[in-house]
Amino acid sequence: MPIMSRINCGFEKKEGFGIFTFGSDLTKKSEKDLNLILMRAIHGIDRTVLNMRDVVKIDVACMKLLIKAYRTSLRLKKPLIVTGLSKEYQRELFHNKSMLKMTMTQKSGMSDII
Asked: Computed from CA positions of residues 27, 32, 21, 105, in that sequence, does the dihedral angle turn out positive or negative?
């Protein structure tokens, strides 16, 4: 079910974790909504999956939010799991020193932030 109007994002609750599925690009116009989603993910759910399979573009502002959310999730001992991120954005995150703990599951083509 969609949870925000300016960003196409669905939420599904499973046993012990929540899955946020993004169906649109993450750009300046969706920055505030992404921030709310990430706060909800980090502070309201013990284990969070961010499914980015349908995201084609992530602008600088939203990338900074993802990095900030990751740092916060580690501090709170609630690491985010990011799946379906394109290789372009995986490289961008891998080159960021804050994301050195990111690992990639080559077989499934998914990247997990752990």
From this structure: positive
pLDDT in tens, 44-96: 888 999 999 999 999 999 999 988 888 898 899 988 888 998 888 877 765 66
- What does the block give as tokens for 91? 């490289």
Residue 70 contacts residue 113 (beta carbons within 8 Å): yes
Specify the pTM: 0.76
Q: Which residue in this structure is represented by tokens 């300016």?
A: 6
All domains in the chain, ordered by first residue: 9-113 (3.30.750.24)
Closest CA to 25 of 2, 3, 58, 1: 58
